[in-house]
Design brief:
globular; 176 residues; Lipocalin; disordered N terminus; 10-stranded antiparallel beta barrel; alpha+beta
Length: 176
């Protein structure tokens, strides 16, 4: 009987140790943290919808969440075709896919997720998007963030909607 109880206690001890090791926080690669840091600050954006510049500027504020492992973005106003929308986003690292991920929620119920590879092209995040609205409409597309300088970046998303290629892009400049 002693042999069984010793074996069980050793196995139990190993499973607890394994569970504790698995519960340790995931290490986020330094380059992923640096890419998220790039976006920290206040940005003014000019939006283009299918190549047409929108008349009002948008404003985006990005900051670190407590703990410094992911960032939060608030868009205080985004104007598309005269309609004002507000949005919020969580930006973090997906260790399984080795991608930077943005999850956006917009005041009109739209949800968009972007998944970026940060090591494919120098000074660019290259990835995909998945869109869903409150009517159940979904589509997927491509997205790129191109860093022009420490104070300017360009975003472009493309997808096919109702058989037509669509684009959204923005030029984003740091507010000083």
């Amino acid at each position: 009987m002693k042999l069984v109880s010793v074996s069980l206690s050793v196995l139990f001890g190993l499973s607890v140790a394994s569970a504790l090791a698995a519960a340790e926080p995931t290490r986020i690669p330094k380059d992923a943290l640096e890419e998220m840091e790039y976006r920290v600050g206040t940005w003014e954006s000019t939006l283009l919808i299918d190549g047409v510049e929108q008349p009002e500027k948008s404003r985006e504020v990005t900051g670190w969440a407590p703990g410094g492992k992911f960032a939060l973005i608030i868009t205080d106003v985004s104007v598309e075709n005269g309609i004002k929308r507000h949005g919020s986003c969580i930006v973090g690292w997906n260790p399984e896919r080795k991608q930077l991920v943005e999850h956006w929620h917009v005041s009109d119920g739209i949800c968009v997720s972007y998944r970026y590879h940060i090591d494919k092209e120098k000074n660019s995040w290259v990835g995909t998007l998945r869109y869903a609205d409150t009517e159940g409409k979904t589509f997927e597309g491509k997205s790129v963030v191109e860093k022009k300088s420490k104070d300017e970046w360009v975003w472009k998303a493309t997808w096919v909607e109702d058989g037509k290629e669509r684009t959204r892009s923005s030029v984003n400049r740091r507010v000083k």
